Fold each of these.
Amino acid sequence: MLSSHASTARSREFGLGLRAAISHAQFNGRGIAELLGWDPSKISNLMHGKVTASPTDLALLLGICRVTPAERDRLLALADNMFSGSWLQRHEAGMPAPAVVDHLAIAEMLVSWHNHVMPLFLQTPAYMRALIAASPRVTAAELENCMQAQAKVREHPRWIDIAGSYYLHESALRLPVGGSEVHAEQIHHLLQMAVRPKVQIRVVPAAHGAHAGVCGSFTWLTFETYAPLVYVERENSTLVLEGEAALDYRSTIRALHESSMDERESRVFVAQLGEELSADDHTGIRTEQRRRYERAQDWA
């Protein structure tokens, strides 16, 4: 018996996994429906995460697709709770959460708040490497795999089309991740990103004191056909919030907007920080980068 519900991040993840399993088994929806003696609409709705089915039906379907035991268990666990709302997804340290990767690929707008470090989409490769390497749970052997996985997300072609608003605390800009040279390169890169047409960067100054984002970083995503969601990243897990739990973040975003410098002020602030860093001849900043810092105020 099918049970229909509103789409959730977990149900969409289930549908994506099921479509991959059916495709890998060299079936299409209609073909596997005929083999099982099911109505094609039942398979279609399952493949798009619109409905769930009994554990017996799902075990039969996954058995025909010959999925691995690990993937079978993952999909059955998703199906068992896929309309239950918020979701804590565990993953390896240094690796992006699969659900976040899948939803970033279809998002229309992104609002990100970070109070300690740069968000992934604004990081240079050297900065990213230094952050990953700082984790005690990531070994030297795992570092390159983590780099490749995060770089794949950062360089996804869909990101060019996403309207992104990034709220950064001054502390995130001043933290010398990777040492002085990597830090200065990151600030230079931030200035370059700030002039992209769909990127908005706003800085919350330390002088503001307490602010709406003190509880931690988060990212808000909106979609063309799905309800908004918020994800909160930790070292080896990511919490995906939906429904009212996600909508509650609208007031936090409004408060951060009010606490932050506007875009022009933020660009000038970042440029001035870049000048501070490049003033030290031992930072290794190239002359051309220094010239860019000096021109930054003209971009505002």
Amino acid sequence: MRDLDPVSIRLFLATLEEGSIARAALRENIVPSAVSKRISDLEAELRVPLLDRSVKGVQATPAGEALAHHARALLQGMDRMQREMAGYIDGVRGLIKVMASVTSLSGELPLDIMQFRADRPQIEIDVEERTTPAIYRCVREGLADVGVASEFASQEGLQVFPYRRYALAAVLPAAHALARAKTLAYAQLLDNDLVELSRDSGIIDVFDDAAREARTSRTVRARVSSFETICTLVSKGMGVGVAPLYLKAAKEKTLGVRLVPLADSWAQPRSFIAVRDLETLPVAARAFVAHLRASASATP
């Protein structure tokens, strides 16, 4: 089998996305007959049909679906390679794609990134906030070089390294009956309306399990994208929530809320650095992982 042509793969994906050869040709600025010939050549090379063609358009066959999955990862990798190589023109020697959870970005990770950039200004870092399950999935699929996220999702198929441990706390209005407690169990919050992160956040499953163990239900009045917003809505009286304890000093001073440590067994989770395969990472990404691990080991 010959090496597959990236142009043909790109045209195949365009045809799937557009639902017809004619629309794919228009999008890619090429004549439809050329698109059709490229896809036919792909099918001949792979010896399987990739598209079901009808008067209504085209759909992927099972083999076409499998090819599309690998093709998207391949083209994304090629695009990233081109961006990284283009960076050498301006003296930049590396581009690292990092996905991080809201907890990590609210903690020490931004400082670690800036320290790394100060030491290696020739390396660029793109940071994207995602939920913990999405981060691990994207690293597993090669859509990110490095992920930094909590333990609240499957890490199967990844290499992971301990990063930071943090404590979780109940966020309460200052006048709440529980606000002066030394510690609280999560179950003690469940008589209140709750303000939580979005449903696809990894920690939500933990809350669900805790409520089941307490033989009660949760009443969620608001779902938001950040712990800062949780604290703000609690200060406005919309309910109570959970956030990292490291926000205590800032949020108690600016918003007048109270953060009380949670005593549950899961309330001191660890965050992890995740990669698909450390040995095959680009040199710049390996250096970044080494920097994060060194920073973590230096923290008591």
Amino acid sequence: MNIVGHQKIIKFLKNSIRNKRLCQSYLFCGPEHIGKKTTAIYFAASLLCNSQDFPCEQCESCRQVFQGKHPDVCCVSKIDDKEISVDQVRKVKRATNLAPFSGSSKIVIIEEADSLTISAANSLLKLLEDAPPNVFMILLARGFGSLPVTLRSRCQILRFLPPSLEELSCFLKKEFNLSLIDAQKISNLSLNLPGLAIELAQNKEEGFKNREDLMEKFIFFLSERDNLENKFQLANLILKFDTKQTLFFLLQFIRDLILIKLKLNPSIALEKKKLLDLSEKYSKTELYFFTNQILRTQSWLSRHINKRLLIENLVMSDFV
């Protein structure tokens, strides 16, 4: 299994297994596409592997974990884009009370733990407090600010940071047989987030074209600040595709406008003059404010909330 970056975290987790100094609950924090789930699966395989050089990736246990079929690994995520419910947590509690099916431990991976309902978080807290000694919980979240303090205090918190441009570019060049220029371009476009970079590399030409088309539309819709129709068209554009991903690209675009104002090089391959002309219509304070508004909107998207109202509220901001 290829994990780009996070080698200090991997080393820490493997040493914890070797030295038998494991926590029962971990909280992996970091942006989407950074590799939290991949690392969680790698950790689960390491816990269940019988080889001394774990995970061996060859034994039946490792293969089952990496294929998502191991009976002692339970993954919990949102259903139909709704918050994680208390019923889902109760099912996990019932499963953890049973003995492991084939391994020595049970592992529970909770994706987007920051989207737990209040009642689900309270139920999970009880599970963290009373879990059997052979049960390990791994919570994945974009940040820990939206998680109750009581939950955070019972977890070993591990913060995931993007790998360096050089590390990610070398991985993409080797894995997808890319030129160094294309690998660096993809790394920049993905803001050094491995998951997103891999998606772009798998369909390079279409990925580049779609991104450039999207950025051109951002320029068009943001160029006339007082045009109400443009604002609603921008909202429709964000809602037309994967909303979270389009918001991420919009965030990257605003970041590039800030870089232009600071006389630094942007990450996107658009004509620099277009970005410069657009950046002059906004102050740095306004761009910082809009960045925070996008981040707040991304956070709210993990909740069960009307997407259209949320996105329209974002684009109707006085600073857009």
Amino acid sequence: MNNKEIALPHDRSDFFTTPQYKIAVIDFFLAELMHDGIDITSLLFISPTKKSTATIFAKQDGILAGQEEIQFFTNTKECFLDIRFNWKKKDQDHIKIGDVICEISGNTIDILNIERVALNMLSRMSGIATTTKKILEKSKTPIAGTRKTQWSYLDKKAIFVGGGNTHRMGLFDAVLVKENHLIAGNKQDILKKLLNIQKYESKEIIENIKFIEFEVENTQEFYEVLQTFLDKKFDTKNQYQYVIMLDNFSPQHISDLFLELENKKLNKIMRNKNNIFIEISGGITEKNIEHYSNLGADVISLGSLTHSVTPIDFSLRF
């Protein structure tokens, strides 16, 4: 199934140019700065008019991420700090221990105010980007994140910087039917409603849908959903892309399924006319990615990209 020439629906990187993302970045910085409160230590011992220059440098090797977000915020009118960043490295750059990332000049107390917020952002986002890059080097299949994030959009951006796909940005931009939907509702009812999705009363919601995905846990469910996607009578304009997620399938189970699809000549039908993609997910990490990376799926999604990431260490010195 895997065809790198076809754009995956999991690539939502266009979202990072939207006002919604820019507002989220500003809100993040303001919330962190306000949460820290007044820096009483600096106010007690440092002159409020003192100017300084400080340097942020890397204490570990990795892939830099978070630079664009810091630069964006400090250039906005919402940034109340009297500081300027002079970047020596940019997002996606390979960084090494001791590399100077940027120089910060301006009011000394303001530099101290943003120090930890900026370092935390660089640390977590660079950790995610670095992990993503490492996993991609082991995988012949594109990878994507999940919604198992700590910093929501920022975590997704870091995956993108590392070369991965974002997957859906939230609950608002894709239909993803998961196990709990089936438990709370009814599978057959959900499939029937899917057939009538264009008749949903809110056109705004329908227009926001970037792709439609269904999580399956066994071969029978896979074929039930596949048949619905192949019929596509509800999508007369062929406007959607479709994804079937194989959740917690073993490598052997996945291999057997793809062989079956090939024998039935369904793999070409799924791709050529119907925009149907197959995603594998569930318990996949950097340690076992190689067992899943060459089975024929279009994309592998990993919660481990964000829920258990190792940060990259940075430091600031005057």
